[in-house]
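Posting here for the record, re: shikimate-3-phosphate.
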Amino acid sequence: MNHIVLIGFMGCGKSSVGEKLAEYLDLPFIDTDLLIEEQEKMSVNEIFETFGEAAFRKKETETLQKIAGQKERHVIAVGGGLPVQTQNEEILKEMGDIVYLRADTGELVKRLEGDTSRPMLKGGNLLEKIDSLKKVREPIYVKMASFSIDTVDLPFEKIIEKIVEKLF
Ligand code: S3P
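Prediction output follows.
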């Protein structure tokens, strides 16, 4: 398949970059979290609170399977935990180009401070949480991606330019 899939840690800019990249390439854009929220008529927070993380991960996989079946090329931003679930690995690999949007931990802490929309970061010390999740996830993102783009200190236009340069 021919999709462009953006992966990376919470706060790395997948949704904002994805929306702009889709606009630039004149392709439809999908954000898996938004799609799940629309389908369930609940926020990601509410899904975690009501049904737990495992149920959310199941919905992510179901959503990914549906998107993967679409013939028209899409730009897709997936939740930060999605590529880490082994059941999604094969589906993602078949989907097209996978782009890892990288940001360092200090920058992520700045961006995610005060955020209440992400259940995985609730409670405890934000830096420690990000650090320990990132240690596990980053090698998986890198392994899975066709290429990585550093997003720190880059305006959206530059990030888009870099992605397009690598893709075409
Ligand atoms: C998650 C990331 C979130 C969302 C959910 C779980 C994660 O998406 O899917 O809160 O485990 O990293 P974003 O990466 O878009 O914030």
